[in-house]
């Protein structure tokens, strides 16, 4: 077979990581089929083929651009693939060949992620309608659809009336080897003697980070040693988060370091009391698995797919109830034996996830897609 994989988003945080890990896994298991990876020139250094049956083809078409719908289908037809894998559902909806489409989550359908100035937000909102149309077209014309979790699979089938045989859930995995090797670096404003609540990620409203500050205000009444570390670029959301912390009298306990190095991340994993994941919508929830891999007990929202992924290896809270979260935080802080048990459960759950297994399952879907088309 000739398999084309859309790798134009290798520089993107989540999708790029998924694509790179999938390619690495496919190179490990398939030495016979031909693979062509479409890549933008600016991402050329991010992935280099290690096997003779894999090669890169330059394709400088930006994601979510008009050319993605007009020019990209022609490029694909000229490559004459047996199957194309689109790692997101936004690309080349008019391509009519055999295709596998990965749908990671439904966040863009359910939540407004526009940000920036008013003109930018309005432009972002205006793009939602064409995205929905492209999304629905891609679902209708895909030969096979891959989701990261059973939750997203079931939602797609229910909302869009898809044939269940067409949609397969394939779990992904967490990578922590590089992080473990990073030399620890301390973080200004905190020390190992603090009881640290840790979150790292982005700050779109659906990430629900505000509930962490609200819960901190409740916990801090009886635990003056507790601090909340919100790592990652907060951008235009930082002012609102700081204002909330100020209004709840916990501004001195909220640490916003922005982007942090692997060494600082490593230190936080080693010295935090827990990792908290308050999101209202996820397709998988890698950060929680990464925290488990680093030995942290995990507190998780009950929303969407998170209970499926974390199983009994997390303590759960209602993401709309700061009081429920505060109670769980206080319980973990007061009961070291519970924290140790949850950390142990996290380690025990990790073997269920592997990028090699992801690659093997995805490879099988390629074979099924081609066979079905024939």
UniProtKB/TrEMBL annotation:
Organism placement in taxonomy: Bacteria, Bacillati, Actinomycetota, Actinomycetes, Micromonosporales
GO MF entries: glycosyltransferase activity
Keyword annotations of the record: Glycosyltransferase, Transferase
Superkingdom in the source lineage: Bacteria
Protein's UniProt name: Glycosyl transferase family 1
Domain annotation Glycosyl transferase family: ranges: 194-348
Domain Glycosyltransferase subfamily 4-like N-terminal: 13-170
InterPro entries, alphabetized: Glyco_trans_1, Glyco_trans_4-like_N
CDD domains named among the record's database cross-references: GT4_MtfB-like (cd03809)
GO terms of biological process kind: lipopolysaccharide biosynthetic process
């Amino acid at each position: 077979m000739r398999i084309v994989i859309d790798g134009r988003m290798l520089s993107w945080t989540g999708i790029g990581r998924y694509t790179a890990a999938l390619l690495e896994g496919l190179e490990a298991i398939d030495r016979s089929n031909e693979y062509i990876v479409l890549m933008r020139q600016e991402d050329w250094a991010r992935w280099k083929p290690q096997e003779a049956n894999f090669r890169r083809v330059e394709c400088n078409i930006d994601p979510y651009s008009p050319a993605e719908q007009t020019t990209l289908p022609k490029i694909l037809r000229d490559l004459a693939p047996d199957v194309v894998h689109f790692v997101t559902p936004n690309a080349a909806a008019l391509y009519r060949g055999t295709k596998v489409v990965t749908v990671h989550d439904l966040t863009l359908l359910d939540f407004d992620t526009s940000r920036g100035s008013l003109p930018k937000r309005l432009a972002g909102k205006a793009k939602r309608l064409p995205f929905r149309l492209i999304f629905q077209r891609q679902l209708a014309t895909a030969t096979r659809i891959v989701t990261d979790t059973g939750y997203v699979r079931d939602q797609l089938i229910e909302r869009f009336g898809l044939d269940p045989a067409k949609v397969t859930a394939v779990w992904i995995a967490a990578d922590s080897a590089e992080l473990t090797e990073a030399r620890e670096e301390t973080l200004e404003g905190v020390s190992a003697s603090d009881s640290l609540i840790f979150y790292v990620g982005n700050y779109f409203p659906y990430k629900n980070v505000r509930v962490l500050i609200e819960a901190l205000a409740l916990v801090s009444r009886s635990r003056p040693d507790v601090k909340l570390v919100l790592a990652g670029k907060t951008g235009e959301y930082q002012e609102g988060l700081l204002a909330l912390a100020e209004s709840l009298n916990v501004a001195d306990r909220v640490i916003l370091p922005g982007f942090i190095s692997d060494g600082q991340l490593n230190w936080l994993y080693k010295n935090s009391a827990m990792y908290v994941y308050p999101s209202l919508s996820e397709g998988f929830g890698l950060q929680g698995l990464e925290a488990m891999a680093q030995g942290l007990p995990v507190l998780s929202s009950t929303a969407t797919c998170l209970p499926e992924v974390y199983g009994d290896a997390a303590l759960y809270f209602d993401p709309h109830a700061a009081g429920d979260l505060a109670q769980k935080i206080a319980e973990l802080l007061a009961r070291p034996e519970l924290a140790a048990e949850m950390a142990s459960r996290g380690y025990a759950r990790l073997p269920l996830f592997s990028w090699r297994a992801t690659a093997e399952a995805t490879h099988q879907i390629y074979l099924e897609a081609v066979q079905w088309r024939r």
